[in-house]
Amino acid sequence: MHKKKLNSSKFAKRLGSYSHGYQVDSGDSMLIFTTGQIALDKNGQVLYPYDGEKQAEVVFNSLQNILKESGSSLDDVVKATIFLTDINDFAKISKIRNKYFEKSEPVSTLVEVNKLVKEGCVIEIEVIAIKKQKDF
Predict the structure, then answer these.
(1) Confidence of residue 17 (pLDDT cuts 50, 70, 90)
(2) Which of 26, 34, 85, 112 is deepest in the core (most CB within 10 A)?
């Protein structure tokens, strides 16, 4: 089994010993796993503190960049997990989610959590994508 870390200098600064994503060879397909993404700039500073809608846009762009690094896209996502600090943002976030997942329509879990790793972050999203090897 071959695996490749996805840690481009284009991504936000990592906050610890982890990878932004992993690309894993699975026979005729490639699985791509992302770590939970929050709205950070390249220096690790929170973007749009406490604004779930603007942070969601940043997070989806970060996910797109990680998936692009593996030759994949949001259209290849099969599973999404979304963490919100306020479930009352569900309708607003779902509208943004639906825009980015219009083609892939992945299985999805959305849960409310007490807090995220950086003060001011109100949304975190992780995804799993699959892409046929011949498409790389």
Answers:
(1) confident
(2) 34
CATH number of 56's domain: 3.30.1330.40
Place of tokens 């990680």: 66
Band of residue 136 on the pLDDT scale cut at 50, 70, 90: very low
Q: How far apart are CA 89 and CA 93, in angstroms?
A: 6
Number of structural domains found in the chain:
1
Domain of 115 in residue numbering reads as 3-135
Q: What is the DSSP string of the chain?
A: --EEEE--TTSPPPSSS--SEEEEEETTEEEEEEPPB--B-TTSPBSSTT-HHHHHHHHHHHHHHHHHHTT--GGGEEEEEEEES-GGGHHHHHHHHHHHTTTT--EEEEEE-S--SSTT--EEEEEEEEEEGGG-
Q: What backbone torsions phi and psi does residue 21 show, to the nearest 5 degrees?
A: -160, 165
